[in-house]
Amino acid sequence: MTSKSPSLPRACALVGPFASGKTSLLEAMLFACGAIGRQGRIKDGTTIGDASPEARARLMSVEPNMASADYLGEKWTFIDCPGSVEFQQDSYNALMAVDVAVVVCEPDPARAVMVAPVLKFLDQHKIPHLLFVNKIDTAGTRLKETLEALQAVSDRPLIMREIPIREGDAVTGYIDLVSERAYKYRPGQTSAVIKIPDALKGEESAARQEMLEHLADFDDHLMEELLEDIQPPADEIYDDLGKDLTGDLIVPVFFGSAENDGGIHRLLKALRHDAPGPKATAARLGIKAEGGPLAGVFKTVHAAHTGKLSFSRVWRGEFADNQSLDVGRIGGLYVMTGGTPTKVAKAGLGDVCAFGRLDGVATGALIGGAEAAMAAWPEPLSPLFAFALAAEKKGDDVKLTGAIAKLAEEDPSLSLDHGEFGEQILRGQGEIHLQVAIDRLKSRFNMAVVTKKPTVPYKETIRKSTSVHGRHKKQSGGHGQFGDIHIDIAPLPRGSGFHFVDKIVGGVVPRQYIPSVEEGVAEFLHQGPFGFPVVDLQVTLTSGSYHAVDSSDMAFKTAARIAMSEGMPQCDPVLLEPVLAVEISVPSDFTAKAQRIVSGRRGQILGYDAKEGWQGWDAVSAYLPQAEMDDLIVELRSLTMGVGTFSWTFDHLQEISGRVADKVVEARKEALANA
Ligand SMILES: Nc1nc2c(ncn2[C@@H]2O[C@H](COP(=O)(O)OP(=O)(O)OP(=O)(O)O)[C@@H](O)[C@H]2O)c(=O)[nH]1
């Protein structure tokens, strides 16, 4: 027995690589369910999914799109997730809310590696999933090789549920391996039952046997039947398929064509029979069955007409519009069809709905119960790409920060921080990710921004010591100014920062002026001879003199500046560039390419090793100058079919000189002159 509750509403995510056909599949599934009267097309911009202007403009999904439908009297919500690696945070979060995922991919073995990251996520979270090899209508379909390549990137066994019937090059139908029935595709209609072609009988029984042997790995009874050559009853096979899918032990494989209605009903029927229901999913997520109403938020959107929407799955009980909760009153309860919200009065166990205006509630939160947040919620993805940005209209910076905070609440893989040179730095997963955020700033918040590459936080330091005298004296007419000091400037080891030492004896510089000397030095160090902050040095105040009337804080501060301006050039100043410790993750076929990228960017390879928990992947460790990082992810993805990624942390500052340093200093001088 499986623990599914078929009569309760179920939720299914469509995930998989970019442009594999998820939005088209959603459209085909909704059409097959009778939820829409006409099947829209991506190229016509008529699909239910990809409804936002940002998605339509790019012909790609940039956020999850939901739609509900009944299939054979059972309620489903399908969530079409973005395939682009730049929008994976949303896909991962949505996967935490569903009972089952359909991984959509293309019938091309070379592209199988693109499925690896999402399969890894699904297995890490034990989310039941099946594979749908789409675009089976395309010429040169290589199903067998595709499956071999897919198996190489899946930790779980892939189990063919059907085999193709071909006419010439084209796949025209399939044979279901459980029912042993053959079907012929009919575009726009359900497939027609046909006789199993004689030529395929041998292939069919071999494929069926293989499927049964995989299932027998998890069922001793079935194993005994197979050993004794007993044909297991269909019910037993269906039961195993449901149980093993629910336990994320196997990955059943289907194929078809989203755009030409091939295999859609077969897929829907498999979901209907085999996918667990919300009670089993709640148990998998560690949510107790007993207790008051409970819902988990998997996506937050700040929408123009409805205000904040918290997209949620109901895990217990029922919620009603206007209901008062600990976290506030529900200000609108909606179900979504693509980008269109429809108000509903209630949402019950298993439903996917959006709660309006729950201001204090974040993605990942549990609403209604004592539990505050979902256990094992995916960590926000760390940033891989950045823009420095500013409001086009001066004075709009506070408004800009507020708008970005809302976008970051919608998508935790987007973040804003403040750079060392007063820049606001928007970080995210790639250029399109940030461009979409910038489009949304304009369309939703009416905020136009200008962007540039963030300034690399270079530093300066010194290599030699010196002693200098700084005197500031203005004693002609009116109140005079007098400050006079002697300082030693000396280098310190890397990472020491700035130390100020007071060695005044006998009050030659009175106590009250010493902080001003330190301040004057510190202010100078904000911008050294090359225009960058100076670090790793010690300044010692050794001597000086004062004037009883004309000395002041300001005069000693100025004397300190004068001493530093004179002393620093004598200390052999040098530019320091920030170097990051980077770990690049790639499938091992791409390891040599990753190493070449590092060398081509003035990096130092520290080594590489098998990536822990990622069979067939390597982790290349390297030091890379921060100046070489800005488009690293772009090059890495273009050389690794989009799957290569990296993590980074600041590691150390490193001296640079010669042409590289000259170019940096020139650019800095120009930037300061234009500031
Ligand atoms: N030949 C063929 N093309 C298809 C099929 N399904 C989708 N496509 C095409 O594949 C392209 C991508 O389709 P989408 O449905 O947008 O793919 P997606 O997976 O939703 O894309 P993202 O969400 O942006 O990752 C479009 O040009 C579709 O017309 C199919 O069954 N056969």
UniProtKB/TrEMBL annotation:
<dbReference type="GO" id="GO:0003746">
    <property type="term" value="F:translation elongation factor activity"/>
</dbReference>
<feature type="domain" description="Tr-type G">
    <location>
        <begin position="7"/>
        <end position="279"/>
    </location>
</feature>
<keyword id="KW-0342">GTP-binding</keyword>
<protein>
    <recommendedName>
        <fullName>Elongation factor G</fullName>
    </recommendedName>
</protein>
<dbReference type="GO" id="GO:0005525">
    <property type="term" value="F:GTP binding"/>
</dbReference>
<keyword id="KW-0648">Protein biosynthesis</keyword>
<dbReference type="InterPro" id="IPR005517">
    <property type="entry name" value="Transl_elong_EFG/EF2_IV"/>
</dbReference>
<dbReference type="GO" id="GO:0003924">
    <property type="term" value="F:GTPase activity"/>
</dbReference>
<dbReference type="InterPro" id="IPR035649">
    <property type="entry name" value="EFG_V"/>
</dbReference>
<keyword id="KW-0547">Nucleotide-binding</keyword>
<dbReference type="Pfam" id="PF00009">
    <property type="entry name" value="GTP_EFTU"/>
</dbReference>
<dbReference type="Pfam" id="PF03764">
    <property type="entry name" value="EFG_IV"/>
</dbReference>
<dbReference type="InterPro" id="IPR035647">
    <property type="entry name" value="EFG_III/V"/>
</dbReference>
<dbReference type="InterPro" id="IPR000640">
    <property type="entry name" value="EFG_V-like"/>
</dbReference>
<dbReference type="InterPro" id="IPR009000">
    <property type="entry name" value="Transl_B-barrel_sf"/>
</dbReference>
<dbReference type="GO" id="GO:0097216">
    <property type="term" value="F:guanosine tetraphosphate binding"/>
</dbReference>
<dbReference type="InterPro" id="IPR000795">
    <property type="entry name" value="T_Tr_GTP-bd_dom"/>
</dbReference>
<dbReference type="Pfam" id="PF00679">
    <property type="entry name" value="EFG_C"/>
</dbReference>
<dbReference type="InterPro" id="IPR020568">
    <property type="entry name" value="Ribosomal_Su5_D2-typ_SF"/>
</dbReference>
<dbReference type="InterPro" id="IPR027417">
    <property type="entry name" value="P-loop_NTPase"/>
</dbReference>
<dbReference type="InterPro" id="IPR047872">
    <property type="entry name" value="EFG_IV"/>
</dbReference>
<dbReference type="GO" id="GO:0032790">
    <property type="term" value="P:ribosome disassembly"/>
</dbReference>
<keyword id="KW-0251">Elongation factor</keyword>
<comment type="function">
    <text>Catalyzes the GTP-dependent ribosomal translocation step during translation elongation. During this step, the ribosome changes from the pre-translocational (PRE) to the post-translocational (POST) state as the newly formed A-site-bound peptidyl-tRNA and P-site-bound deacylated tRNA move to the P and E sites, respectively. Catalyzes the coordinated movement of the two tRNA molecules, the mRNA and conformational changes in the ribosome.</text>
</comment>
<dbReference type="Pfam" id="PF14492">
    <property type="entry name" value="EFG_III"/>
</dbReference>
<dbReference type="InterPro" id="IPR041095">
    <property type="entry name" value="EFG_II"/>
</dbReference>
<dbReference type="InterPro" id="IPR014721">
    <property type="entry name" value="Ribsml_uS5_D2-typ_fold_subgr"/>
</dbReference>
